[in-house]
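agent: user wants the full assembly modeled, not chains individually. Plan: 1) parse entity lines 2) check alphabet per entity 3) run joint structure prediction 4) return tokens. Steps 1-2 passed, two entities, 1431 residues total. Proceeding.
--- entities ---
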Amino acid sequence: MESNKKYWKGLEELQNTKDFVEKNKNEFAEPLPMEEVLNEAGLSTVTPRRDFLKALGFGLGAVTLAACQTTPVHKSIPYLVKPEEIVPGIPNYYTSTFNGHSVLVKTREGRPIKIEGNPNCILSKGSLDAKGQASVLDLYDVSKLKNPVLNDSESSWAKIDEYVKAELAKIKAGGKKIRIVSSTVNSPSTKAAIADFTAQYPNTKHVQVDAVSYTGIIKANENSFGKVVLPKYRFDRADLIVSFGADFLGTWISPVEFSRQYTSKRNNTALQGKKMSRHIQFETGMSLTGTNADARLPLKPSEEGIALLNLYAALGGAVIGTKPLANNPNAEKAIALTAKELAAAKGRALVISGSNDVSTQIVVNAINSILGSYGTTIDLDNPSYQYAGNDAEFAEFVNEMNRSEVDAVFFLNTNPAYEFNDTKAFTNALSKVKLRVSFADRKDETASLCQVIAPNHHYLESWGDSNPVEGYYTIVQPAINPVNNSRNAEQGLLIWSEGAVTDYYQYIQNNWAKTVLAQSATSWKDLLQKGSVSLPERSAGTYTFSRELDSVVQTILAESNTLAKGGDNAVELHIYQNVSIGDGKSANNPWLQELPDPVSKVTWDNYAAINAKFAEKLGIAENDLVEIKTDKYTITLPVLIQPGQAYGTVSVALGYGRTKAGKAGSEVGKNAYPFLRLVNATFHTATAASLSKASGTYELAQTQTHHSIEGRNIVRETTLKDYLKDPNSGTGHAHVNHYDLWNEYEQPGHSWVMAIDLNACTGCGACIVACNAENNIPVVGREEVRRRREMHWIRIDRYYTVNEGGNKVTEEKEVEKLENIDNVSVIHQPMMCQHCDHAPCETVCPVLATVHSSEGLNQMAYNRCIGTRYCANNCPYKVRRFNWFNYWNDSRFDNYMNNEFTQLVLNPDVTSRSRGVMEKCSMCVQRIQAGKLQAKLEKRTLKDGDIKVACQQTCPTNAIIFGDGNDPESEVSKALKSERTYYVLEELNVKPGVGYQTKVRNTVEV
Amino acid sequence: MRSISLFFRSVTKSLVLVTLLCSMAVSSANAQDAAAGAAIFKQKCTACHGIDKAVVGPALKGIDTKYDEAWLLKWIKNAPAFIASGDAKAVKAAEYSPAMMSAFPELSDDDIKNIVAYVKVGDVKPAADPNAAAGAAGAPADKGGVSNFMLFGLLAVIIIAFLVILVLNRVITTLERVMLQKKGIAVEEEDGAETKDRFEGLKKLSKNKKFILFIVILCVIFLGSAGWKGMWETGVHTGYQPVQPIKFSHQLHAGVNKIDCQYCHSGAFTSKNASIPSLNVCMNCHNYVTASEKYDGKTSPEIMKIYNALDYNEETKVYGNDTKPVEWIRIHNLPDLAYFNHSQHVSVAGIECQNCHGPIQTMEEVYQYSPLTMKWCINCHKQTEVNHKDNPYYDKLIAAHDKLKKGGKVTAAVLGGLECAKCHY
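--- prediction returned ---
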């Protein structure tokens, strides 16, 4: 045990608060009310003989009657004419596209049940994020419209078409403007359909606006290099990454792609080549990316632009008029050091900023130009089309409506009544438009202001295409017939514009035949098989920044002054997207709502994250309600004390506070969009606000300190320097005496084991949602999470540890004395059943419901389980979950599953557990069995990689490797042979089947 | 009860068969060549022709009068050549749509004569009926049966009632005696003489403690074992034979016609589910097999159910849109908590369908043959050797096993077939 570094999951654990100690005494926080029954009053209660007999008689009778139930008759209804490709019981996979990422849709008997990344996808390489995994549940959302709506009553498509066409004809004659407002459209066919519509109605303009905008970067590139593009970033070519508030592993532009690229420089392969990239993060709130950084510095939003200017100056750029960061000497020092490192890594470095301010992004461009990033780590010639929104155009559109210049507006995949910063102004302006059409699939905030709601298909029901990055085209293919009476939005546009082709499927085929298929010599069938077409990449040119920065400096300084306005309760408010809910479009997805935030581990709510010392100064404690106020908008939110949050700032997540999202997502948290400010033609995510304590408290449903590990040394880390000296460093390998109480059992056939690379895991949580979907894990809701009853089989433990100066704090007492807990670093550790060979849970089960298999699996037979919960109490990893209720059939937990329609998403190969049983990770035993059976049917040996467990399959960074430990050539065997491998709580000699590899930090000694 | 109904069935079947054979012997003396013709007809002609009914080709009744034998010989043997030769009648016959008569050069003149003879005579009615008769005889025997449970129940109720009466009688007499004694009336002497005579034996027995003990033990054993048996059979539905929406006979399809199980239940070889065939599979044959010979030239009402479900018009051969799915009743129900995969057992292990489903080829209506209990599964896993020959998947496992056990019997159980997560997940 060489490391005694103190790790903690939450401040309450660090400070050992009374409540925390009390709740962690037992595996189950809430004891059964035995005392109430067995107290003196309870025991001395007299039950008269007659009452006793009555109860006995009634009980006996009731039981007898209940047992008299006849066996239900099961109907079995075959297809009348079975489609050739469907065999009941065997899944089919179809290619489709989610959010620009090519995916495979797993269908059973014609209904999609799981989404997986398509290995052919150049962005994801077969992985997928949490949102993509969860998107299948949106298909079965009961909050969606069943029929199109005309003037608030259900209608038919014929009537809608008649009405819209008549209105459009009138508007065309009147000559006023028509606007199609959408979030970014990168589908070539949708663009063509809009162009056709525009040709028919020449006053039409397509306005793109994204809820979370990247206009700043696009405008800055236009300004700096004359290219109106969102560049393609190459994290896999960067040895040094410096990010100013860009959460590129969590939410920024293309997180799945970036995570993969980023990890390729930090995973086992990279380390074995004795190399690892270095990542420095300057940011306000603790983001997922910040938790992964080698060095992280809290920085206020007002300081970000100045810091970038100073960095530019330190790199030799010509800046006049900038000033040092007087209030943040640490940052000033760090900027100087970063400049030195960057200068040494020219051509291999990348500087990015999450700001949407054009001026700030121009400075970033200038820095990257000095570093020679263009052509190496930044590619302006193969741009990304994932975001193309233009904030100014949207603002202008609202003005046009206000001036009554617009007669018709169509909303496609956008919800300005919720996402625009001035809802009231938008609503007023919209009311002046004659024809208002929304393509929303539900009556959301904007759609409820429209006369016509023409519900669009879910992507799993529709044809479509996408062009997320230059030269990469993917196809959206339906995997199920439309469930509701919905229709492609594009089809609507085609019908209303009375084009020659009104069938959108035909339209797409024609479009592809003319363009991509012709260019790439691919057939339509090949396209459907592969899912995408890649055209050859253009060569990335080098670009040099050569503009004056004077006006930019002035704008940045002025903006900085606005943000840091000072005053008693003044704070700088930082608005961000979190990993699970994002911009709030899929707020009605309970899987995402219950996915703990990767950093704060809060579910089902947003909150005001503030710094511990700042909270102390304001006299605010965790869970206190605070009022966040600007001159335009006020919200009240519970406080979360966030280690690493910049002093004097508060961070609030977007995407919450939807009022018309649906059953699960409405009225969850508070809407933060109105805090956005339109400055210099872009929406800014930072604003000056005041923070004051409001009355009352609100308990956040936070999973962070559930399943505490009692201060045991279970996460291991080392530094790159130490690793290079000794690859074993940090693993804590020491001689452990193995005394066995158990007999040794051989695993002659397969031995299923897992390897998890802590250096590759970014903590994004995709695995949790993938596991939910694969294993029918119920959503329990906010109240149950508060009671520590979340059901996730895999969790990602997030540990904080403190860095003080160059010396790591080693003794617990020192931690307590520490004043500054802002300088924290974080480790994410996925934790699930370790499938111990000497499993402590198995020995204590009185009914042998959990036993070991000859393949090394810790099996759980639900129907044997009587719910004593001994196993959970005896599990040192705290990975067993007790099923308290029938969550899929109990009106108290009406999150989503209490209807037969949504239940169609369940995986038919996995039992839906009933209440009163224990459950836990099975290592996707259904996939193991299916993989083995496939090999047997094909009469071949089982190949490594035939079986992929759900969490492994979706992991964007390949942090989880599963396989047969008896096969020395398997990927997992090789991974477990790495010197970095250690087993959690190895000293207990429970022989876990999951090996972890140490986290390596590329720290630089000061 | 299953055995009783089966017994009934086999008895009635053999009886019917005997009578039929007798009547056949009488009636079929003059239909020697017609019988041979029938066989050829069924083999070669039924794909396109019916006797009374147009299928793809025209109905054949009356061809023997319409055409002379020589013409028919030429026509059936090689119609295309015959038409090409320019025979007027043949050219006219060729106008029939939608299909052309095929050539059958393999048929001898005698064969063709036999076919024509068969067409002339038509189906010998009774010969087609044994199955229907047997079915009809079998069904009432089934439905009239009284279940074991009811019999035992009735018996138990009678015994209990008897005991209760006995005990109550005793109690009443004792009480009466006590009351009378209280009133000071001596009773012994009054009744003594008579009762002694009547119930002397019984009284003696009732005072015999050993006898009483014996009776009590007998009752406990009887009721206990009945209860025990009843409890074990709770949820076990061996013999479950629901009435299906279509009276589909496995006996006819799998038994008589020897259609391979795979033809309809293709899923059993590739998938978890054996799958009930969709109706398009039925229509592969029942497009022209209408069993009309048994129903006076009309399509069998059971086959009509297929047509109705598909909204298929027999006359025009057109499928409509008013389709209704057939709601079969599932006979073999495993609980949701047990995962069973047909392909593992059928394709990998090579187990015959009959191992679990019983003599399915003899079942007029399917019933559940095996208990489908976990004990039943486990027993089979313990006894059945793994079919590992020529399957490289097993090579490593068998080698590892041999190293441990030195050539013992490799049953499913030995390779982990008894472990929970093999079936429960």
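agent: reporting back. Chain A touches chain B through 46 residues (CB under 8 Å). Residues 809-819 of chain A have pLDDT under 50 and may be disordered.
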